[in-house]
Hints:
By secondary structure, this protein is an alpha/beta fold. It has helices at 3-25, 39-61, 66-75, 142-149, 152-157, 172-178, 181-188, 203-213, 233-236, 261-272, 296-310, 357-365; strands at residues 103-108, 114-118, 129-135, 161-165, 191-201, 223-227, 247-252, 320-322, 329-332, 341-346.
Amino acid sequence: MSTLLLYFFRLMIVSSVVVLFVGLFKPEWLRFRGKQPDPIVTTVLAIALFMAGFTGAGKTYYTVDNHVAEAAKDGVNLSEAIYSNDMSATSCQPGSKPGKSGSSDDEKTDDGILFAVRTPSNYNDTIAHPLLMVYAPAGRDRSEAEEQTYLTKGATAAGFIIAYADHRPLSPESVVQLAEIPKMIGEKWCIDKKRIFLTGHSDGGTVAMGTAFFNGTKHIPAAIAPSAVGMRDEDLADRNCVKPTPVMLMHSSRDKLFPNFGKEAIEWWAKCNKCNTKTYKASDRTAPTSGKNWGWESYYKQELEQKAQDLKPGQPLPFTTPVPGVEGCMAYSGCKNGVQTWYCEGFGPHPEWPGRNKDIIDFFKAVKTN
Length: 370
């Protein structure tokens, strides 16, 4: 995305508003070849500037960088897996799973949700594979999700079966329906039910995260790596914690749609995972000075202000340290059972997939299961 071009189109939008107001309230300021344009011409000009700026800014904002586009083209290809001894520890009976090797594009749930499945090109139907489930963002289908995240090549090379699901409008019901897909895949392909991993971007990330704590679905994922989630602390305040779950949460400091939601969400996970986190005690708050209102509201306001400062974009979260070898990722310490709880901050706009594909796959590969 060209930042200068984006600013140019935004300037056109601002100029359209200026032209409209000047034309309506100070028309004498406008001159073209020594003549003052009438209000209709001024209005038409303002609308034209606005439409050109709005259209151009939208296209520029959503344009994918060339290197990302090239990575996406290559990333949808299948790879051969290198089967290791630990993968062969669990197995399926020969011929018990009818799912074919390679690409299956038109699988469907009982609720009509379409999804696609990709296996390693040398898929062995007797070896239980880890499953990587990818949920699409709003407005995207399974093939678009695959092109956006370009995880297929890396995942299949690492021995994963990977699946992509069409987007469904967010609701608790749709999360439960989408959570049925791993079970359906397990009926046709040989997967390790203890190594089901979830990821997705925007709405897809929210689905992955919701699946991990909803009653009835929380048992499914061994770990999650959601991106650009649309959940913040107030959405999670009444949610019960689940068993310690490895989480790699990705969010951008420039996300304008869900600003700073990621840091609020990972703080909730860190507390649920019993990690070392900052606590806010009533005894730490200062009493209001005389003449000001005395009450719990003033204390609570101080706590909110302190939390906002602690979670400010661009600065490390309290009680986290950099993850060695993974740029931009911070890890909490002291988490129960040693579960990894990571926050990875990027710099792209909301629609942009963070591109941490190797980090995501390595994170999932390192998860310990019983």
